[in-house]
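A favour between colleagues. Tell me how you read the following sequence-structure pair.

===
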Amino acid sequence: MRQELKTHVEQIHSDFTIVDAHFDMLGDVLKKRRMGYTKVIERDFIPDFISGGVNIVVASLFVENQYVPEMAMRNALDQISALYEEIEESPDKIIICKTYQDILTAIKNKQLGVILSFEGAEPIGNDLKLLRIFYELGVRILGLVWSRRNYAGDGCHFQQVEEGQKGGLTDFGVKLVREAEKLGMFIDVSHLNDEGFWDVMKIAKKPVIASHSNSRSIVNHPRNLTDEQIKAVAKHGGVIGMNAYSDFVSEETLTKNAEGLVKHVLHIVDLVGIKHIGLGFDFCDLFTSSNPNFLPDKKEKKSFDVIKGHKNIKKFTERLIIHGFKDEEIKLILGGNFLEIYKQSLTKIN
């Protein structure tokens, strides 16, 4: 039976398109290129993507606190430049996806398709005109905030902090949502506080995603979504990417694993159906050795990825099979649902 299950999992990862809707890869790529390394994605990332069967990755432009606010735009542009340099060095292996057709090309040619997203709008400051520049460079998804405040709105913190009155979207944030959708981007609500989340739901016209958020009913953390928020994302035609960060997966040590993550899937499927679940693992363990402050976690007991990188995501698929999900349902979870969002939203051709 074990071998039969293993064969089944291998077949799924060979046949289906797999999408990770959130990965902070480019900050690491940029640091290594500054040290003189080349072909960083080909050497350090693609082997694990191949092992896990991953075809499409959303690479977020995450700007660390030390660069905010003055250096945020420069750091984000440097990350994009690093990606373009990587593509020049490995043109047969990596492609930037600006349209849905680019995604199909990546899948057909067995290349890694990379979609760019903002993880916080700090790189544009409060200058709306800069959004078009980033769009032309390939950014297609707008995560308005990380877990801090910026000109667009307030993020939800990882741990409780002493702060003043919280707010939702600012007037600039409202304009930003509208301009992003006009350009051909769509909105990601992961990291937004509850006030900002509901503001987006009132304003957005396109599908809205939560690229890397779990269920707050299972783990009561502000980075997870309430049942009402999950229903709102679904009503907006969106998808929620399951996050492998241990603090968002379980409050119990024994279920900080793939099984614990599947519990979030089961809950969300019960609430809104199979078409609103995807993957947004937000793997971070890989980056902590070069930057121990990458995770905003100062606790004695460090948080961790409950699945150890892309090469091990088959363990997640295995648990889905054990819980009775059919192949066509697993196909949607692993990538089909996010691909439908990309098909609907990435329609403007440069």
Strands lie at 18-23, 54-61, 94-96, 112-119, 139-143, 186-188, 240-242, 277-279. The mean pLDDT is 94.
